[in-house]
Amino acid sequence: SAVISQKPSRDICQRGTSLTIQCQVDSQVTMMFWYRQQPGQSLTLIATANQGSEATYESGFVIDKFPISRPNLTFSTLTVSNMSPEDSSIYLCSVEDWAGQGTSYEQYFGPGTRLTVT
Amino acid sequence: LAKTTQPISMDSYEGQEVNITCSHNNIATNDYITWYQQFPSQGPRFIIQGYKTKVTNEVASLFIPADRKSSTLSLPRVSLSDTAVYYCLVVSGGGADGLTFGKGTHLIIQP
User: Fold this and answer.
1) For A89-118, how does the pLDDT look when each residue is reduced to its tens digit (9 = 90+)?
2) Sheet harboring B45-50: ordered strands across?
3) B35 to chain A, minimum CA–CA distance in Å?
4) ω into residue A8 within 30 of 0, thus cis?
5) CA–CA dist A32, A50 (Å, integer)
6) In this predicted model, what pLDDT tens digit does every residue of B38-78 receive, in sequence order?
7) Alpha helices in chain A (DSSP H)
8) SS3 string of chain B?
9) Which residue from A33, A108, A111 is facing B98, i.e. has the nearest CB?
10) What gap in Å lies between CA A69 and CA A71, rounded to an integer?
11) B101 vs A114: CB contact, 8 Å cut-off?
């Protein structure tokens, strides 16, 4: 199973600033995903990041607000730009791995980055 | 992917068996049923996945009837540490897709 770390684990930022979240995986993976989990809510997929290509964003999320980098097969960053209090959430990255014969894929999640925007 | 419906919350007691049912009426032929568990301040964790009939691992069992329009996650002899949110998801067999999470079931285990 993949082990994922994220930095920072939490941060408090002022509105109008930007924060870059790092996601590091202990093995090479093709697909990486970024999610947002607002307080008391479920997870929402922000984008899918493949190494060597532009990230694919879900409806409601745009590259200017959430630029993503994927420089290699073990690392990705998500930037939350021009932050407002509505961006206060937990941001999680995940990777996909084959779950075994007779099954499909499972995803491993990082511990998340808790962002508070004041 | 098929939308899933599951109870918002459930209560049980230590030592009991807990069954959480999920409906997915529009599941496609190559879709799998997958359950994740999430504790506060942690990312979701994969529990179990199945296509049909019954799947069992060291953590849980998953029962899927022949029509695959529903599934039941069974947690044997729960403990306080099983208090968490449990998400039922339908995932494509081909992978390469982000996951669509519903609201999940908030399971509270009492002593």
Assistant:
1) 999 999 987 766 666 778 899 999 999 999
2) B9-13, B105-110, B84-92, B31-38, B45-50
3) 10
4) yes
5) 6
6) 999 899 999 999 999 999 999 999 999 999 999 999 999 99
7) none
8) CCCCECCCEEEEECCCCEEEEEECCCCCCCEEEEEEEECCCCCCEEEEEECCEEEECCCCEEEECCCCCEEEEEECCCCHHHCEEEEEEEEECCCCCCCCCCCCEEEEEEC
9) A33
10) 6
11) no
The length of chain B, given as a count of residues: 111
Residue A31, pLDDT score: 87
Chain B residues closer than 8 Å to A58 by CB: 98
* C-alpha torsion sign, points A27, A30, A31, A34: positive
Tens digits of per-residue pLDDT, A1-28? 789 999 999 999 999 999 999 999 999 9
A chain contacts of residue B91, beta-carbon cutoff 8 Å: 104-105
State whether residue A111 is helix, strand or coil.
coil
Shortest CA distance from A100: residue in chain B: B49
Pairing of the two strands A68-72 and B70-75: unpaired
How many residues in total does chain A contain? 118
Specify the residue for token string 């899918």: A48
Nearest CA in chain B to A46: B98
Say if residues A91 and A113 touch (Cβ distance below 8 Å): yes
The pLDDT assigned to A99 comes to 65
Neighbours of B96 (CB within 10 A): 11
Q: Name the residue of chain B whose CA is nearest to A45's CA.
A: B98
A61 touches chain B (CB under 8 A): no
